Please model this.
Amino acid sequence: MAVTAISETSQIHRFPQYKYIHAVRWLPVLSAFNRFAVLASSDSDSDVSSIEIHSFKPNPISFDLHSSWASPSPISSLKASQFLQKSVIAASTSSGSLHFLFADSSDGMLESEVSVPENELHSVGKSCIDLIDGGVECVTVGDDGKVNLVTVGDSNLNYRRLFDSDGLVSYTAVKWASPVEFATGGYGFGLQWWDQRKPGDPVSQFKGNWDTKLTSGIVHSIDIHPSRKHTCLAGGSLGTVLAWDLRWQQQPIILSGAGAGNGAGNTAVQSISESEVWEIQYDRCIKSNTSSTRILPAMICSEDGILGVIEQGEEPIELLAEPCAINSFDIDRHNPLDVICSLEWESVAILTRQ
Amino acid sequence: MSPNSTGNGALVPFSGDTNDSLSVYTLHHGLSRPISRVAISWSRGNSLRVSLFAEPSGSPDAGDGAKVVEVKLGGGDPEIDDADWRRIAYGSVAPFALLQSRRSSISALSKSPSSYHSDWWEHVLQYSKDITSLFTEPKLALNPIIEDPNEIVQNKEEPTCLKAAWELMEIFYVDKQSQAWQPERLVDWLADYDCLFTSTQETIHGKLVDFQNDLVNIQVIEDDPRYWEVMSSALSVGWLDIVVKMLRLHGSYKLDQLSYRELENGLVEAVAVLISKMPRLRHKSAVGNLGDCFKSKPDFIKAWEKWRSQITKLDCSPFWIQCDNKQTREGLRNLLQVLLGNTESLCTASCHWIELYVSHFLYIRPFTTGIENMYTLAQKCIQLKPPTGTHRLTGLMIGILAENTEVVLAEISREFGPWMVAHAVELLTAGSEQAEILLHDERYNLGGISMMELHRLAYAQVLSSHALTWQIAPIYLTSCMKQGMGLLENLLYRQSVQHNNLLLKNIEICRLYGLDHISSNIMKVAGVYHWKHGHKGAGVYWLQQSQDTNCLNRIAQQLFDSVGKSISDESFKQWEGVIELLGSESKPAGGLEFLHKYRDFKKSLQMVYSGKSADAARQAAGSLVLLMKNPSTPQRFWLTLLYDSLKLLNWKDSPLLSVSETHLLLNKLQELSLARQRPQFTEPSLPHQALSSIRLALATNLGRAILDE
Model:
């Protein structure tokens, strides 16, 4: 069931799934022999949404369903992390519920589930979540302007509202920066920095009017590198990728996008895409000669079917150019050469870079 | 529709003698009471949603009052399920788009309206190969390490009628390169797809499989008449490697029998060698196939004559008399008759008329060219072996051989549906100008569109009806000159704006095809949707994107109802986010631009309160006048603004407002007191003495300003 293609730079395996894949993640596991991926899928024939764990074996190539859990409604955001001896999967649904699934780290079997019911955290609409690295703390934000913190304890599940904009500001992306800080993104390329030690409003807001020529857009994804917590990397509409340095708030660095090259202080950069950048992550394959003043290389996937790496002041590198949208991707943290991505046309691709 | 009530429960009377065009679906609704009302609407794909309402009942425990059931129309394709059809639909987008772009670049170069071009067929062949690759399900090729000596027929991938039909069209319409050996391509085609005909009648493939299944139970293979029968059948359709493999199963090859069956074995081997040396007029042999291939006709004719004379020589050889095994002797000589093209032997050996047809090309008329001859031969074969049932592929085959494009279109449309027609049209028009005229001519009875466009539109409609495939419909719609754009606009308007991802994908399609007016409308709808659902920020964003100042003005009024009442009000902080969202002032914000000015005013006012800078105070006063002048400033804030600015009005050093500016503010105050008389006026929550203190401050300022000037 796999189609394999080998290019100069990478080996690509495509696996048709015959259902729509909303999001995809590698599952952090302890075992060196087993590789697992988590898929959030929707079967259009039976109207069943589920979270599936697939096991990936490179030789002979296979990507088989390992275990699955039926979700009450389609998944809108999916994150995976490692906590003690378990793999944790957090997923928010389009009906507003939030689910935590725990899987055995060595055999990838789903063991238990806890959830926050609908309408407790968010009203119906898209919500976005981020799971803290190595923990079970989850921050959730939504179109309704609510920001919540959910923690899974030994026997219970706690959640509290950190902020409610009353719908005046909608949030479309969130990312932890440290155990107490996180960043959110929203409409109009808005970015906010939050600190739990200073409850209430965001401690810092990205000033959006730095360039009047730039057409406004929506932030879809944020990443923050653990070694550079002051820089917030955001991807969104019109192929825009920008870095917001908290120390130099007035001058964002545009790495790609329609507005690139127009902004003051930005040297002309080539855009890798002109449409929505659905997800962005720092590329974990870092070359040793990366300068400390530069923004680290980042990987993006886009609506026009591009999976690529962009680096400040360099030509972007295209890893995949598909005829359909690439909706999400994930870089394996243990084998950063391996990238998994979900394609609009009901399939999943796994890329092994050389 | 027949509810489970007694008697004739049908809601719509229909007579029992149904003809083909009427299909009956039975619904199981489980309602206990009689049905009083039925509502029918389209659901996803080709499903109908039927809502059944029972007659009202007085008692509360009379069961459900209504039920909604979905009825899936049509059985679907028996070979390919919906998910697989979608996979084929996705995969065919890129080849289709590539071919269309090639066509337009070629016609732009040649400046002629016709796409007919001397080597156009090469592009179509590439397209055809790309499409064919979709029909094989991507499976892992598992080659057994140990080959089974008794395996005659290899278990290859399951072929589909769809693939067979596509390849048949490719052979006859597209592949100009192998036109000279078209009959041989038909032989290969039958070798791949003979098993498909097993569904309607007996075939050689079916016989072979049956025989193979019995093989383990047979002691002496050459004594079994079926062994010889199956072999002559396989030989008649040119499956040389299978025949040679079976011949080598002959008992005389066994080591313990070789010594006393030497002569018999010699004859078997001689026939096997002759079979494997059969000359074939073809480019190259498929991997593992036997036979000598010749590319040029003269070489082939020479080799053919020589081979025939060798067979005749063997047929007349005296060794046959010395061979004492009757079964072997007769079986082998029958094989030789097949090779010599004995019509009777061929007719008994084959099952289906297509098999007989192919055997004619192989052994009787190896030099046949030209489709007219092929058609007459096909008719002859049908007479000799009348088909016992109709098969999806035979109708298509006859249509192709009869050179009747309309029949071919009708067959593929009926048997394989809209995907097939929309994509196969490219094959039909590849080589024949006649077909091209037929398909490309605009027709009055089709509303001025061509048949090609009609079929593409029909396919696009199928794609549009499914949530996962609607995104590829635009590619087909934009290739339709007349009606495509209109339908595309419809399609884009129809999509839900509820989910951002879907909305953005929709807008992206608008961007790709330059449909700015549509994306602007879609964004407007999205803005109103979000606004209504309390996502105020998102609503403002989308309305701003669609540049709908009208709508923005209207929602601004509602929004200001909840703006902070005074400068000390902490709640104004939450508006910061919306102001950020509005971006720079150059962007259209409608009535919301007040927020910008209000914030600037508040900022400078805050500076005045924190320090005593005269410049800051002058700036704040300037902002105040701007705000009061601006028509977008809501009346209900006038008093609040003035009250907040009391400090400015009473500025100690010098009056901050000129005479005319003070007059302006006084006029506004006057206007306000008139507005107070109206019933819908809302009183701001200010101290009682607010108005009088503002009046006093303004009067003092006016006096000082007059003195100054």
Notes: Chain B touches chain A through 48 residues (CB under 8 Å).
